[in-house]
Write a structure and sequence with these properties.
266 residues, alpha/beta, Rossmann fold, eight-stranded mixed sheet, globular
Length: 266
């Protein structure tokens, strides 16, 4: 299994395919407090079309530490250094915090004269405009963690934020998500609440699709505003709202997401 090196140390990545150039590469970027496992429901399907590189981003999972106060631009410069041996991806899939990393990296590749083929951005952060609903969920999760430990807090976020069906939040899923939180050493939330992905998208030369969950507490109160706004940025047909999908959209509605990727990449 390849280990990619950046200026801060090794970056762990799950890989599907030879990465030898015979097939296009898709780069899958997880969200905050996550790891490559944010894509675990999607690897088999995506690997039919692409060679896959699915990293633990720096400061997450089994990857290297990141210096405190590292900003998004420097973070992406270091991350792209690790990917330098590979062709520029044909597809960059970003989830939540990963949409910021994917878009900023795409702009840097573009500046170097080699933009990625296309981007798909799943439930991007809303910058400083965090919904009261999300803040309330995070407050309940913090209370639960103080009373019953990290797993209790994670159970709240999985049931109320990440997935649409609380019955799918199994003890195994909670344990996995809690392990991801424990292995998180980079604080992505300050970046997610400062960065305005709308301004970043304006600079993209690559085609960009935006995928939103209609049940995502980050998105649903603002869908009436966000959908037309995003359409103005990326085009009428490149904004997709998946019904029945909460924040962890690609896991929550994996089959619908797979069909969408097929349509977008035709």
């Amino acid at each position: 299994m390849p280990v990619f090196e950046c200026r801060w140390g090794p970056i762990h990545a799950e890989v599907r395919g030879s990465l030898g150039g015979a097939r296009p590469i898709a780069l899958l970027l997880h969200g905050g407090h996550g790891s490559w496992r944010h894509w675990m429901a999607n690897l088999d399907h995506l690997s039919r079309r692409f060679d896959l590189v699915v990293p633990d981003l720096p400061g997450f999972g089994a990857s290297c530490e990141v210096p405190p106060e590292t900003g998004l631009e420097l973070y992406c410069e270091a991350f792209r250094e690790a990917l330098a041996p590979l062709p520029v991806p044909a597809l960059v899939l970003g989830f939540s915090f990963g949409t910021l990393v994917g878009t900023a990296s795409a702009l840097q590749w573009q500046q170097a004269g080699t933009p990625p083929g296309r981007l798909m951005l799943i439930n991007p952060p809303l910058g400083a405009d965090v919904s009261p609903e999300v803040l309330a969920i995070l407050g309940r999760a913090a209370d639960a963690a103080r009373a019953g430990g990290l797993d209790a807090g994670v159970a709240v976020t999985q049931r109320e934020l990440m997935l649409s069906d609380p019955a799918r939040v199994t003890p195994e899923l909670i344990s996995m998500a809690a392990a991801q939180v424990r292995s998180t050493r980079f604080l992505s939330r300050p970046i997610s609440r400062r960065a305005d992905i709308r301004q970043m998208i304006k600079g993209l030369a690559s085609p960009c699709d935006i995928v939103l969950g209609d049940l995502d507490p980050h998105q649903r109160a603002a869908l009436g505003v966000r959908v037309p706004e995003y359409r103005g940025l990326v085009g009428e047909t490149r904004v997709h709202v998946l019904p029945g999908a909460a924040h962890w959209l690609q896991y929550d509605q994996a089959e619908a997401f797979a069909r969408l990727v097929e349509r977008v990449c035709e």
